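User: Before I run my own analysis I want an independent prediction to cross-check against. Here's the chain; please return only the structure tokens and, at the end, one sentence I can use as a sanity check.
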Amino acid sequence: MSMLSCRVLCLLAIVLCYVGVTHADPASGGKLEFVKEAQEKATETLKLKAECEEATKEATAAAHAAQLFAEETKANLEKIAADPKEVEKTKIEGLKFIENAKKAAEKAKKVRDETITSKDDTESKAFFAKMLAGVTDQQPEIAAAMKAADAAQDAITNANDAIDVANVHANNVESVLRKLDDAVAAAEKKKEEKQVETQAQQQTNETSLGEQQGHTEGNKTEQTQEAQSSSSSSHSSDAPDVRETSAIPLPTNATITNGITQNDGSSSPALLRVPLLLLLLSVLGCMAVC
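Assistant: Structure tokens:
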């Protein structure tokens, strides 16, 4: 019985060894297959990583350009709003910066998503290859695949930041253009108010000028009337008074005759001057009446 038992145990050991060797080759083949797939995915991941980095640079540059435009436009907002040509030019440039920033962000986002997918596949292949290899059989290809996945993750993180920044600055440009529209509207309103104020001032000036002309004409009229009044008064004072002249008694024929008779009867010179004086007074009286 003991001999039989030994023979059975030996036969069982041989069978187990055969089975173990038989199953060892497929396991080794599976491990190598996962390593190969991990290598291929790692190569793809590194390529996408480079594309992701390039797209990140483009998005960063577009974001920076949009940022500078927004800051410069905001600093000169009122000056630009006062010139219609500058307003139109600024709007065209602003829309271009917005378009460039958003396109760069979309491109970076697309490449980033492709890189994420490739990185995840690389990590999965490398993980299974590592599990099949065991602790004592770490092949360099598996480590290289894991390193490629880590590098891709860094590129993905940078791309996320660049995408966010590009979108932020594109939105900032849009905000500045809206502020420019508001500034243009405010400038137009201010211009209209100034025109109304100018018209009101002109009307006030015209009214004041009319009043001044009225006062001037009134003063001239008063001065003319005063001058005429003064002239009339002066003329009246220089001319003989008709009433006073009329009041002088005219000599009668009897008086003249008596004077002549007296003159004939007397040779006195005084008597000769009396008729002449009376005649002179008569002439003056007639002149005054006329």
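Sanity check: Confidence is low (pLDDT under 50) at residues 10-27, 234-248, 253-257, 259-267.
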